[in-house]
Amino acid sequence: MIAQNNQLESNTQRAPRYAYLSGFLLMVTMLFATAPNGFQYDLSTDTDALLEGNWLTRGQWGPVYLIAAYLVWRHRTAALQFIRQLNPFMLGLISLMLLSALWSPLPEVTIRRGGLMVAALLIGFSVHLAGWYPQRLIRLLYLAFGGILIASIIAALLFPSFGIHQTGDFVGLWRGIGGDKNQMAKLSAVSVVIGSHAFLTAPDKRGWHGLFLTLALLGLIMSGGKSSLVAALAAVFLMFTITRQPITNRFWLPVTAVSLFLLIAIPLHFYIIVNGVPTYSDIFGPFFELLGKDASLTGRDEIWVWVLPVFQQHWVLGYGYGAFWVGDFGLSGKIAASLGYYPWQSHNGFLEIANELGIVGLGLLIAFLVFHVRQLSILRHVNFRAFAFYAPLLVLLVATNISESGMFNGVNIYTLLLMFSSVAVS
């Protein structure tokens, strides 16, 4: 294994020009994932464009995918060695996305959107094949998100008519160069994790890292993304705990899990004896009141009520990847008519996968996460500094996936980070 990794490292560092190209490719990818497709900021999407594709979007992303494929081809020997170490459940999940075109009501849409996941994997591959070193992805993300964050703050402060919502429910909230305030919140939340990691693990440049972290917190607060704020703070708390008290005991995970279970189970036992089984509102209501929200996560439960019956009709293999939320077409149009607005997603990433890929897809997603945690447990013995970044990042992604369809739902920031971090850990 050591000899194989040394050969891989030698192959990936052979051509510096490819390293610069792959690094630039990652930065462009994150910019395109943050901004609206085709840089269209009207917050509207035509149903025909969703069904048939958008030529402006293809012109934007096409060169990126071609360059990624070229880089992988140029490093095909290392790629063949590397692919054996990848998370097999990620490959299985992407394969199921493409296979679901066989039963999807919109097979061309399913193939196109499943193909985007293949293209995203190629980008992650190219970054680690061309110019790899242990901290490369973390440093590239620092540069990419730092640049996008600064551009977003400048847009909000100097060009408020563009960088701040002027109408609708989000009026006054920052969106930066993203499509809406939710994109700004995602960008800022990830930047908080990146900045915190740099501040805690690189003491020689804490001034710059502290400024980066301050700007990230500013963007997160001004975007109004309270769910992202809570998820980011949870991730940072874990990171602080890891870096300040390095985990060396091999029994730390089961001991921590059992301790957390007892911490929750014992008070819950006495609560049930006195007050009966608590409802969802009893458990989460006080927490959401502190955030200024209702326990339904701002009406998300209304969406879930409509989506769950659809899942039950196709519970084994799902409706078809990417074929449900497609504008006025099909069942999603009827749901939008009943809700009075179009939600564009199920607002729960696990339900989204279950609805589109069935219980098989949901099982693959959970297996992917479990395998990723297993890889992280190995990584902490190999590169503790990298472990201190990727473990909290996973917490952020999983936590936000409860209220947003972030995991494997199109080429978005969270999907890219999940796939890229999986490749990096592998």
Folded structure, characterized:
The protein has helices spanning 2-12, 16-34, 47-52, 55-74, 76-82, 88-99, 107-129, 136-158, 160-163, 181-201, 206-223, 226-244, 252-275, 280-290, 300-313, 330-339, 349-382, 384-400, 413-425. Mean pLDDT is 81; it is low at 7-14. 72% of the residues lie in helices and 0% in strands. The radius of gyration is 22 Å and the shape is globular. Helix 8 (136-158) packs across helix 10 and helix 15 packs across helix 17. It has 19 helices and no strands. It starts with a helix and ends with a helix. The chain is mostly helical. The longest helix has 34 residues, at 349-382.
Number of helices: 19
**Average pLDDT over all residues:** 81
* N-C termini distance: 13 Å
Instruction: Specify the helix fraction band.
Output: over 70%
Measured on Cα atoms, how large is the radius of gyration?
22 Å
Proportion of residues in extended strands:
under 5%
Main sheet overview = none
Characterize the overall form.
Answer: globular
Q: How many extended strands?
A: 0
Low-confidence stretches: 7-14
Pairing-aware structural class of the strands and helices?
mainly alpha
The H-and-E topology, N to C, reads as: HHHHHHHHHHHHHHHHHHH
Key terms:
426 residues, 19 helices
Briefly, what is this?
The protein has 426 residues and is mostly helical. The protein contains 19 helices and no strands.
List the helices and strands and how they pair.
Layout: H1 2-12, H2 16-34, H3 47-52, H4 55-74, H5 76-82, H6 88-99, H7 107-129, H8 136-158, H9 160-163, H10 181-201, H11 206-223, H12 226-244, H13 252-275, H14 280-290, H15 300-313, H16 330-339, H17 349-382, H18 384-400, H19 413-425
